[in-house]
Design a protein that fits this description.
homodimer, 12 helices, Rossmann fold, 2 domains, BirA Bifunctional Protein, domain 2, nine-stranded mixed beta sheet, globular, five-stranded mixed beta sheet, about 30% strand
Chain lengths: ~425, ~425
Amino acid sequence: MYLSQLFIPLIKNLPTEAKIKSHQLMIRTGMIKQSSSGIYSWLPLGFKVMKKIEQIVREEQNHIGAQEMLMPTIQSSEIWKESGRYDDYGDEMLRIKDRQGREMLYGPTNEELITDVFRSSVKSYKSLPQILYHIQWKFRDEIRPRFGVMRCKEFYMKDAYSFDISDEDAKKSYNKMFYSYLKTFSRIGLKAIPMSAATGPIGGDLSHEFIILADTGESKIFADKKIFDIDINKYKFDDASLTRMRNDFTNIYAATDEKYNKDEFNNKVSKDNQVITKGIEVGHIFYFGDKYSKPMNCFIDDKNGKKITVKMGSYGIGVSRLVAAVIEANYNNDVMKWPKTISPFDVVIIPSFTKNNTENLRKAEKVYLELKKQNIDVLLDDVDENMSNKFKKHDLIGVPFQIIIGSKSEGDNLEFKELNSTSEILSLSNIKSKLRI
Amino acid sequence: MYLSQLFIPLIKNLPTEAKIKSHQLMIRTGMIKQSSSGIYSWLPLGFKVMKKIEQIVREEQNHIGAQEMLMPTIQSSEIWKESGRYDDYGDEMLRIKDRQGREMLYGPTNEELITDVFRSSVKSYKSLPQILYHIQWKFRDEIRPRFGVMRCKEFYMKDAYSFDISDEDAKKSYNKMFYSYLKTFSRIGLKAIPMSAATGPIGGDLSHEFIILADTGESKIFADKKIFDIDINKYKFDDASLTRMRNDFTNIYAATDEKYNKDEFNNKVSKDNQVITKGIEVGHIFYFGDKYSKPMNCFIDDKNGKKITVKMGSYGIGVSRLVAAVIEANYNNDVMKWPKTISPFDVVIIPSFTKNNTENLRKAEKVYLELKKQNIDVLLDDVDENMSNKFKKHDLIGVPFQIIIGSKSEGDNLEFKELNSTSEILSLSNIKSKLRI
């Protein structure tokens, strides 16, 4: 894509409400545009990043055998009355009356709706275990939306739901999802720490938050630094190994302020290993047994033909929030560098040219076509602007690799730079193989 | 995927409200489940088909240079007051008050919101032409939702918006989209006819509906049968060729009842060529100039620095409706056959086996693994059920190709069947190449 054609409104004057760096960067580089309080449009640059994150989340859900489906955004109040949450949920629920006066709502989460789908579809233990998920817009009518897409009203979430015949089996599903989440965040270039968490309005007695460290985080974090050293790749995808994995994580102290206990922290963690910092929640998993299946009469026949309530868990990842979280983790000293796996483009070509001398631009166009042929997603900066401004701009746009066509590029040897590193002179075929890894 | 693990609730007793064949089939094969009046969940089988259609729509939009973005579902009433449509839209608009009493709505379409994005982002003729699109859920509070996802409340739509500096340029964008639509429907296996149409609440004076023929359609169609013979592949993607293309289509009589004129029909079309039938609208394109840009002050500077209103068009494809439309066009005599490009699976393996003799099932599993290795998306029917029931079931699920592992399959020679044809005995490698085409 040519930069002059890309719909990317770069903003110089930041709105005063943009207080954290991800919000500032997303506005400055035209990734998002606010349409009303806490509600945003995703412009092409932001959209591309979000879609790449969505695809990684999807692949890691499919990998553990979860099946994708899609529930609607607008739900009837009736199922929420069945579960008892219609009144509990309070003002954060966007309540709607349709033209016939029926009470509807914009789903803030989907435990009730998936239970309704399940109870009318599955009758026998033979169909279990089952994990279903969808990636859909949710709405929470935040009283004070802030921090851009980090705490907004309309947000994009992956939520999965597991169905098992016993607590014991349900824990296996929980562990699979625990594993899937660690894999997902690692592919997005984030180090996420699972922490024992409060269950809030979802309910249940077993829950973990996945937190990435960031100074701007809303959660205060107390952890043993050993938890950062666990290598997820050493676990196999079988129940015994996954049980070990969860034990390894949960045996090391890590808690948000909600669950923090000072004495426990000091007893369990030596002073040298104590990490006290802030973090951003990017995922949250819950096991709540029959909290919904019981009031909503979601029964199945067990082996002996006896009706039992199905045991359920739910598992959320904030897909739109992750875009901001990645920026918080990767935007430092006025340079944003997208992880390769989710960068909006694989590489940007930056030619030095003027109206009167477009030789480098023409050369850039040849390199562009050459890379496109290899299915490399290239951005070509064809804007007539001085190089110093261009570099500043691309420090913000954050494509991790640059090909600079200026005085240092001669013939087939081109100046190639990884953001935050020094540039080197490489042949085009060397550049291609670097980009393909 | 093994059929026993697939979340596909097959329903035997049809609800009485399912009156058209697409609605019936989608309920019977567990593609969708109604959650409340006119609102559906998409279960895995239906979801897979819809996502494949979405991807074809996306590719054909990108192909003409349209850029993808995403606008939110919930909009502020303010922009609709600016355009003057807030009162006009009537009861079909789902109106919402948030917790602070602000008037919001669930977007039924996005002309206002995209104009708002555009006016704050683009200031100069240099940035035009531009086409932006998104694929997002919409809501229309239908007084009488019916026919399943064909006329429902919450629906999935691709809507694109073009921005040009003159009427003349805008017609070029219109023609590009006209071409993109014909390509899109053809890749989905549908013969869609563009017909001059009324503009309704969107406005403007130039508009075409894209209609596919189906007995259950809500629109009555009057056309010259020559229009079915135009080959879209003979046109090149340049302005002159696309102008010719639109002329070729619009010079042949084709109209829905809204625009039908009996005398004109009889004068222009010989009796032998007159086709009078019914159809389903699957796309609708509009050119409306400055209908929105003028009241909403969406100005740009032209070459001479003069402020002019931008000229806009909008272009919709009903992605969720297309799933039903494809069924209406391809489900006959109790057999559904999905077009290859959007089938939920590439092939289904149907072994004949009993609890006491699972030899064919084991053979099927080997074939399954072999095909999976080639990235062929296979469904394996591992359900213990007699073959006659299995065939009836797969006539409905509609995977176009079957490998039948029974008495006719010996060693590496397998019974291979395309739905609605007779079976043949082929080697696995022959089957692989047939599936890859």
